[in-house]
């Protein structure tokens, strides 16, 4: 069961990401997703990723709108930071961009320290960041840092 959370701006941040290391489709598995009309993504377990990664906002012209349940399980990966390439601007919030992170999406990502939350995302599933022991209880947006109330 997913939960809706209210996000509250804490302070302004500057978007920082590595344009040259944006993950391409070989590292991500994606499926059609009907709730928001885009695609859901999860990491391809054929690869082991570590360090800082930058996610695309679309794959093959399809907008990423959901991070799948258990999509970024930490048992195989040593990811420390997750950024989004070219996040949508405020004027596009209603029409494109990540909308939801499903339950346990980042479960046991014990080295995850930072996650850049796109401003478009308004729903976090139960235990989305459970057992992320290095993670602070804040969700960082493109321009604003958010925390769950």
List keywords for this structure.
single chain; 149 residues; mainly beta; seven-stranded mixed β-sheet; six-stranded mixed β-sheet; 38% strand; disordered N terminus; disordered C terminus
Describe how the helices and strands are arranged.
Blueprint: E1 2-4, E2 7-12, E3 28-32, E4 39-43, E5 50-55, E6 58-59, E7 62-67, E8 78-84, E9 100-101, E10 114-117, E11 123-125, E12 139-141, E13 144-148
Parallel strand pairs: 4-7, 5-8, 7-9, 8-10, 9-11, 10-12
Antiparallel strand pairs: 1-11, 2-13, 3-4, 6-7, 12-13
How many strand segments? Answer: 13
Number of domains: 1
* Alpha plus pi helix count: 0
- Principal-axis shape equals globular
Which oligomerization state do the chains in this entry correspond to?
single chain
Mean pLDDT: 75
Largest sheet: 7 strands, mixed
Low-confidence stretches: 1-18, 140-149
Kindly provide the radius of gyration, computed on alpha-carbon positions and rounded to a whole number of angstroms: 14 Å
How far is it from the N-terminal to the C-terminal residue, by CA?
18 Å
Following the backbone from N to C, one meets helices and strands in this order, namely EEEEEEEEEEEEE
Q: How helix-rich are the residues, as a percent range?
A: under 10%
The portion of residues forming beta strands comes to 35-45%
Question: Given the helix and strand composition, which structural class is it?
Answer: mainly beta
